[in-house]
Amino acid sequence: MVPLIIDLAGRHVVIFGGGAVGLRKATYFCREAEVTVVSRSFLPEFSGLDVRCLEADLSDMDDDALAVLLDGAFLVVAATSDEETNNHIGRTAREAGALFNNARGDGGDTLIPSVVRGEEYLIAVSTGGASPAVPRFLREHLEAAYPYLDAMIRVEARLRDALKQTVPDQAKRAAVLRAVLHDPDAWTWLADGEDRAYERIQERYM
Ligand SMILES: C[C@@]1(CC(=O)O)c2cc3[nH]c(cc4nc(cc5[nH]c(cc(n2)[C@H]1CCC(=O)O)[C@@](C)(CC(=O)O)[C@@H]5CCC(=O)O)C(CC(=O)O)=C4CCC(=O)O)c(CCC(=O)O)c3CC(=O)O
Ligand SMILES: NC(=O)C1=CN([C@@H]2O[C@H](COP(=O)(O)OP(=O)(O)OC[C@H]3O[C@@H](n4cnc5c(N)ncnc54)[C@H](O)[C@@H]3O)[C@@H](O)[C@H]2O)C=CC1
After folding, report:
1. Model pLDDT for residues 95-119, shown as the tens digit of each residue
2. Ligand 2 centroid to 88 CA: how many Å?
3. Ligand found nearest the CA of 86
4. Measuring from each residue's beta carbon to the nearest atom of ligand 2, which residues come in under 6 Å?
5. Residue 12: which of 76, 66, 87, 94 has the closest Cα?
6. Whose atoms come closest to the Cα of 22: which ligand?
7. pTM for this predicted structure
8. Is the minimum distance from the CB of 19 to ligand 1 under 6 angstroms?
9. Which of 112, 137, 138 to mutate to test ligand 1, by most ligand atoms within 8 A of the CB atom?
């Protein structure tokens, strides 16, 4: 498997299962995709999400009815508590040409990672399904370890532009940018605001 960052704007994602896992997957996708959730029951939190909820019992549904639900789907997620039902959804999704993620059962062709996201960056962590507690642990660790990562990225971008004007040697520019990242003072200065930190970094490195 290889990581991809996909724009889901205008794409249709169909999720099966209205429990805690279906809710997490729906929350993950509904920030940009058009999400439909199909389930025989829904946690109350679904009413606060921008998703379409369709009440249906898959045990009463034939293959044609299931295929209609998947028509036009870009990605299908199976998150019911029944493994056989999830695998059946997966086979139908493949026939429909949609990507498939299985929360429990035979592996689909996509996995959903833990995501650490700022305004300027995105980090996705996966163990390929071996131990999902580990991506969550790493996400929490990274969130706590780098509260000023967005500010640092913006300061580094400004510095990079300034260095391009003043330092012709690329290796020297790279060394300065790396030194700032490794300078504990630079991270401390960011707590007092981005502009002030940039001034202090300029004083030390330019
Ligand atoms: C294969 C995968 C399929 C998929 O869903 O895509 C999958 C499968 C399963 N997870 C299970 C359990 C747990 N999952 C989590 C957490 C997360 N699981 C996520 C992804 C994935 N989980 C995919 C690959 C992950 C990878 O790449 O390594 C995350 C990253 C993203 C998300 O789901 O949003 C999200 C963290 C989000 C965050 O907080 O950052 C925790 C931890 C916790 O909740 O504290 C536990 C309890 C501990 C444990 O059991 O390990 C079980 C039931 C096992 C059982 O019944 O015993 C199965 C099914 C099975 O293994 O059969
Ligand atoms: N991938 C992941 O991140 C994780 C996966 N899991 C696994 O995912 C599965 C779902 O977990 P939860 O959401 O906690 O379970 P849950 O039992 O709370 O929710 C399951 C949902 O599926 C629906 N459902 C079940 N059979 C159905 C059918 N025939 N037709 C229509 N809807 C049906 C139920 O109504 C319910 O809304 C479990 O099997 C669990 O082991 C658990 C933790 C994390």
Report:
1. 999 999 999 999 999 999 999 999 9
2. 14
3. 2
4. 17-22, 39-41, 57-59, 79-82, 85, 103-104, 132
5. 76
6. 2
7. 0.93
8. no
9. 112
Cβ-Cβ contacts under 8 Å for 31 (sequence gap 6 or more): none
In angstroms, what is the span from residue 3 Cα to ligand 2's centroid?
Answer: 25
Q: Which two tokens stand for residue 15?
A: 């999720």
Q: In the prediction, which pLDDT does 60 show? A: 81
Amino acid at 104: R
User: 52-55 and 75-78: which strand pairing?
Assistant: unpaired
- Cβ atoms of 105 and 131 closer than 8 Å: no
CA distance 43 to 49: 11
Q: Is the dihedral of CA 112, 115, 119, 121 positive or negative?
A: negative
Of 158, 161, 153, the closest CA to residue 122 belongs to 153
Of the listed ligands, the closest to the CA of 105 is 1
Q: Which residue has the tokens 């071996």?
A: 130
101-130 burial code (b ≥16 CB/10 A, e <16): bbbebeebebbbbbebebeeeebbbbeeee
| Contact status, residue 32 vs residue 8, Cβ threshold 8 Å | yes
For residue 48, the model assigns a pLDDT of 96
Per-residue model confidence as pLDDT tens digits over 39-87: 999 999 999 999 999 999 999 888 999 999 999 999 999 999 999 999 9
Q: Whose CA is closest to atom 38 on ligand 1?
A: 136
